[in-house]
Amino acid sequence: MYNARILGAGSYLPEKIVTNADLEELMDTSDEWIRQRTGIHERRFVEPGVGPTDLGLQAARRALQSAGLAPEQIDFIIFATLSPEYGFPGCGCLLQEKLGLDTVGALDVRNQCTGFVYSLAIADQFIRTGTYGHILVVGAEVHSTGLEMNTRGRDVAVIFGDGAGAVVVGRSENGDRRILSSHLHAQGKYARKLYLEAPSSLHYPRMTEKMLREGRYYPYMDGRYVFKHAVDRMQNSVREALAENHLEIEDVGLLILHQANLRISEAVVRSLKIPPERVFSNIQRYGNTTAASIPIALDEAVREGRVQPGDVVVLAAFGSGFTWGASMLRW
Ligand code: UT7
After folding, report:
1. Which numbered atom of ligand 1 lies nearest the CA of 154?
2. Shortest-distance atom of ligand 1 to CA 194
3. Is residue 163 lining ligand 1, measured as CB closer than 6 Å?
4. Which of left, alpha, beta for 324 (phi over 0: left; psi -120 to 50: alpha)?
5. 258 is catalytic
6. 124-181 tens-digit pLDDT
7. What is the pTM of this model?
8. How is residue 67 annotated by DSSP?
9. In which element (H, E) is residue 98 found?
């Protein structure tokens, strides 16, 4: 058995900035409401025709560069997204082709906001058993083409943004610097509290005229319900990781929560009693980028010097499924 660690991280955000004032033009909302309720000031949207694998490719190149590796040194790809370019095949296959990797295996993970935490756990297992040497883990999303940009859709539309983050996971030569543990949970009884119904294999055709009229190809979210669960479940998964590793909250060098809503993060931070300076947030600039939010934040935190070798880093997420979980690493 080997130990696995993150060898490098990278991220990529589309250039186009969409401010809250821009959204005021499209729906009955206000900059003040969005800032107060979510903490978001602006988000990024792609230009037409740009997909999650285009964003993921740029993030992957940066992660490879930071790990000092060439694409050919990747043995396996894990791609987390809820906004795939096609119904099938998955984005992992498309990225594999864009990276010029001939027959390397590629897996898509459909675990929404928790997708990156699940993907990292899978990569950890493959590295520890010696199956693969270097695994590229990507979280990438294009939400902007799937949001209802009017007053009916405003509760969801103002939250989400596009972006991608990636890491390369490989063997740790120094046993102390490693992924310490992963904690993965799901509870399907809440699936329809936050979901995208259509197109659906329950219908023929999979998108009917009626479904189109009713806007059932836009995400549905019971915002307040999701909010409460996000706060409880993310703090519980951090506590679970601490207990498993016999650590206290004081031992955590940096906490990165899935960037769902600044108020959710603040509630988790208050409850865990972790000093805010040990928590990284960038939702103000990017909104909620679901599977991409943690790897983007991790990359920025590393580049800003917020994480030093030997630090304990905790990543925690919650989202549709419901799914939630945490990864604890010694950086
Ligand atoms: O990524 C993981 C999954 N997602 C999340 O974790 C998100 C969880 N939920 C949330 O972040 C929050 O519930 C929201 C940001 C979506 C909504 O904030 P809230 O404080 O829970 O507001 P609310 O849904 O209780 O709505 C309060 C009011 C309502 O008006 P009335 O009924 O009080 O007259 C809404 O119609 O705010 C109204 N509203 C808006 N007003 C202006 C809802 N969306 C908007 C909007 N602009 N965009």
Report:
1. 48
2. 3
3. no
4. beta
5. yes
6. 999 999 999 999 999 999 999 999 999 999 999 999 999 999 999 999 998 899 999 9
7. 0.98
8. H
9. helix 91-98
